[in-house]
């Protein structure tokens, strides 16, 4: 069956021009898009490359394979971007000219009721980006200790009532496994006031998604590998959507590590592998937000390897 255009471009690229411009593309360079998704950013990168240019696109989600670009300059890597270092070695690539990461979850994932990313649909409590991976959101909800659940909701969802939330879930699961989104919502909805319900539920689902997909650990590994993989003058270009990932990106660009630990030389100068290209974060304009509401919280940061 021939795919529709909508299926092919399920991910409307955020800050497309700004991010690809930020990569400072040289027509014969080697580039990596670690979040291939619908291929929107990758297509734009390829349009700026000549025949000796190369682009690697990473994505762990099998749905992304439907969007693979048929182009001899393009290599698709079906893997989590945390393995950036391994796959660059596998393809005999020592250093690259720029790395792009768009850390947002595509609307395609939220709109697919079977994937369990959204509280708008009933379905299995799943949330795995890689459907071959083991742990699901149902596993987290049904097996994690109360204290660990509370920590996840507090750290990854920044929910003030994380302890109460964990306690209610643990009490409910004593009467039987929580398997569907509908069952889960029935348990947690009474904890949130009507006026803030959607915002708070989004935070709960975000926290579970981050835990299921080990997003923070994967991001840390990718950013560390990216720092090593870039040539001098190479660019790291990252679009973030929530404060946790943005903090890690900001830290690595300012200090060379995700914790933000500073080291100084003998003269007191900050030791860092990067210099910032934009001191002020780039955000979408009103027109883009109207066209693509998921871009509302996007922040673009660009750094250059010294």
Key traits:
single chain, 306 residues, alpha/beta, Rossmann fold, DNA polymerase, domain 1, 2 domains, 39% helix, 13% strand, globular, disordered N terminus
Quick overview:
This protein has 306 residues and is α/β, with parallel strands linked by helices.
Report how far the terminal alpha carbons are from each other. Answer: 49 Å
Summarize the main sheet.
Answer: 7 strands, mixed
Total number of helices = 13
What structural class is derived from the secondary structure elements? alpha/beta
Mean pLDDT: 90
Choose one word for the global shape. Answer: globular
User: Would you identify the CATH H-level superfamily of the largest domain?
Assistant: Vaccinia Virus protein VP39
Order of helices and strands: HHEHEEHEHHHHHHHEHEHE
* Helix percent band: 25-40%
The side-by-side strand order for the widest beta sheet comes to 3-2-1-4-5-7-6
CATH class of the largest domain: Alpha Beta
Q: Report the strand count.
A: 7
Radius of gyration: 20 Å
Strand content: 5-15%
Subcellular location: Cytoplasm
EC number: 2.1.1.199
GO molecular function: rRNA (cytosine-N4-)-methyltransferase activity
Function: Specifically methylates the N4 position of cytidine in position 1402 (C1402) of 16S rRNA.
């Amino acid at each position: 069956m021939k795919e529709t255009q909508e299926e092919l471009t399920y991910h409307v690229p955020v800050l497309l021009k700004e991010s690809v411009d930020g990569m400072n593309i040289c027509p014969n360079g080697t580039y990596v898009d670690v979040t291939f998704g619908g291929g929107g950013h990758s297509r734009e990168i390829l349009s700026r490359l000549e025949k000796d240019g190369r682009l690697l696109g990473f994505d762990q989600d099998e749905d992304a394979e439907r969007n693979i670009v048929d182009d001899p300059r393009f290599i698709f890597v079906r893997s989590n971007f945390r393995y950036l270092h391994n796959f660059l070695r596998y393809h005999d690539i020592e250093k690259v000219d720029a790395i792009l990461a768009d850390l947002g979850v595509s609307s395609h994932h939220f709109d697919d009721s079977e994937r369990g990313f959204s509280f708008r649909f009933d379905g299995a409590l799943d949330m795995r980006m890689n459907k071959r991976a083991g742990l699901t959101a149902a596993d987290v909800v049904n097996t994690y200790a109360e204290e660990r659940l509370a920590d996840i909701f507090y750290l990854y969802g920044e929910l003030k009532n994380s302890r109460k939330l964990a306690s209610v879930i643990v009490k409910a699961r004593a009467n039987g496994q929580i398997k569907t989104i509908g069952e889960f919502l029935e348990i947690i909805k009474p904890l949130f006031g009507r006026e803030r319900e959607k915002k708070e539920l989004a935070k709960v689902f975000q926290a579970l998604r981050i835990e299921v997909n080990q997003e923070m650990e994967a991001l840390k590994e990718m950013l560390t590998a990216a720092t090593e993989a870039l040539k001098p003058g190479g660019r790291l270009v990252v679009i973030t959507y929530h404060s946790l990932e943005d903090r890690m990106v900001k830290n690595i660009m300012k200090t060379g590590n995700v914790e933000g630990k500073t080291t100084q030389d003998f003269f007191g100068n900050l030791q860092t592998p990067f210099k910032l290209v934009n001191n002020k974060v780039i955000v979408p304009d009103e027109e883009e937000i109207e066209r693509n509401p998921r871009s509302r919280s996007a922040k673009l940061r660009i750094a250059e390897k010294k």
